[in-house]
Amino acid sequence: xxxxxxxxxxxxxxxxxxxxxxxxxxxxxxxxxxxxxxxxxxxxxxxxxxxxxxxxxxxxxxxxxxxxxxxxxxxxxxxxxxxxxxxxxxxxxxxxxxxxxxxxxxxxxxxxxxxxxxxxxxxxxxxxxxxxxxxxxxxxxxxxxxxxxxxxxxxxxxxxxxxxxxxxxxxxxxxxxxxxxxxxxxxxxxxxxxxxxxxxxxxxxxxxxxxxxxxxxxxxxxxxxxxxxxxxxxxxxxxxxxxxxxxxxxxxxxxxxxxxxxxxxxxxxxxxxxxxxxxxxxxxxxxxxxxxxxxxxxxxxxxxxxxxxxxxxxxxxxxxxxxxxxx
Length: 327
Fold this sequence. Notes:
There is one protein chain. The protein has 13 helices and eleven strands. It has 327 residues and is of the alpha/beta class. It folds into two domains: 33-126 and 253-322, D-Maltodextrin-Binding Protein, domain 2, CATH 3.40.190; 128-245, D-Maltodextrin-Binding Protein, domain 2 (3-Layer(aba) Sandwich). The strands form two sheets. The protein has a six-stranded mixed sheet, with helices on both faces. Strands 7-6-8-5-9 form a five-stranded mixed sheet. Helix 5 (97-106) packs across helix 13 (301-322). It is globular, with a radius of gyration of 23 Å.
């Protein structure tokens, strides 16, 4: 009769030991198949450059291929929606301010709820938007000269952006409201075609991050006037901040980061976060990103979530005040 309690105790001990095993010992190791990273903008955009710079290094750490898929459209929502609805456990998206923090204030309906359907993993980079103009059509060499020129065009100015609801779009809308001039918004799917529009004179000006603009700056087709934040990379140190040009309320940082569907196991999020942080510190990756004017951030998933929440609070109020609405 004494053996039964002993056997029961032994079984319970074995069960308790199994429960105490690390999660990796109880479930298949992640990743168990190729990892897809969806880029919601086109090839050559800053988001595309970030993912491709990191992809090979991540693949080496994971022992699985990293497949980059460009899916531009709808201000970034098409690509982000792929990750929000993914069920394979191996799909991420690189997101940015527009389809994550701004969208709920801009659109009556979105295909996903950023707060409920997505899980922030890591903030990859941040960078200021740059005010740029066509070097031939626009004579301005300072922000004050640009504002004076724009006011004199009697509403005939147009500006490009990398998409409806992007930080590029909203930063120009904010500058227009603060400076008192008007211009027509011409959105594109990503920064490369938006930059090309300015270089070719189809658009007079733009706000966007620097990478897509730099080839046109070197060809003397585009002139940079100012950055939208006091925080700026070494490659843009010679440019004044908008706050120093008389517009302290016009400040924005365009951030980028990796997201997975809500409900992704915490162990997987932690694994990706740790590996991405390590890759962002790789010398070759740092050099590639910094050469494009991108400021590497990294940090924890919680850090990234706090940044998003701060943007929602600040820009939600700005969007509401400006009355910007998109279909």
